[in-house]
Amino acid sequence: MIKALAVAVVALAGVAAMAEAPKPQPGDVTLKNFAFRSGESLSELHLHYYTLGTPHRDAKGHVDNAVLLLHGTGGTGLQFSRPQFADTLLVPGGLLDPARYFIVMPDNIGHGDSSKPSDGLHARFPHYDYDDMVEAQYRLLTEGLQIDHLRLVLGTSMGCMHAFVWGETHPAFADGLMPLACLPVPIAGRNRFWRKMLMEAIVNDPAWQGGDYKEEPREALRTASGLLTLAGAAPLPFQLANPTPAQADKLLEERVANDLKTLDANDLLYQVNSSRNYDPSAKLGTITAPVMWVNSADDFINPPELGIAEQKVKEIKRGEFTLVPLSANTHGHGTHTWAKFWQDKLARLLDVGKS
What tens digit of pLDDT does each residue of 15-25 get? Predict the structure, then answer.
């Protein structure tokens, strides 16, 4: 059975590779009087999102084909349009073919074209966390799109952590959860170290000016960019592609130069800080949906040698964990967006989620 399924997935991948993914359609919703867990609020919280496909309603009028895709820290819903994801899954014959599913890809609070500090409030923007972000996603679906059930929640990195929050906060809302590249424990150890270093680089730069800078604090952002590059680096591919000091230095300078064109210090500070109180560990046993959890062996942010995933998956009633082995073709933490490494697991989850 499993072998037949794997063969079918390979066949589907071959068909999908010959097709092009459709272009996501943008949308916006305004959530009135949004209350944050910090006690702060916004009279209007704007959420931008993208969709693919058409919602299908059953005999009772409920959408029965919706899929929620959740991006990582600093990303947007458009990250799922990258070829390594879209050209495998979001094409005719793909596992998430928009002819079959209605795909919703939000820009989360503080990201993309959704409400964020750089819109004008700067460091006076409400201090959102992951629970706030999931609540906004929930309201986007239920109030904005009239969706009260999901076939799947799939999230990468920060979105991976959101998937665990979804499973605990709204246990009956989704048929399946696919968290990619995270751990369901507090952000601690090395993962906390680099985040703390990044945040302190921003707030300790005199040019930050308490968040009311007129020009970006470039030295802080240079440090932040280097830390982001390190956290996302795939050790073996990076070593093979940059075997000399000069090549490594050149790559880093290119990454920093590109980041300086787009990063906003306040937005980045809030994005990284939103993980500060994340901790679903105590309630993993309350998750009722099947969970197909995938990490990669060359992930700097979630190092497999900690053994946390293998222990915590035992607490999830219908949980399964897979570790993608390190290779010259994997992508470190970013392996989460390369669907070829885990699409067979997604196929199994979608099949299980039918029951």
Answer: 444 567 889 99
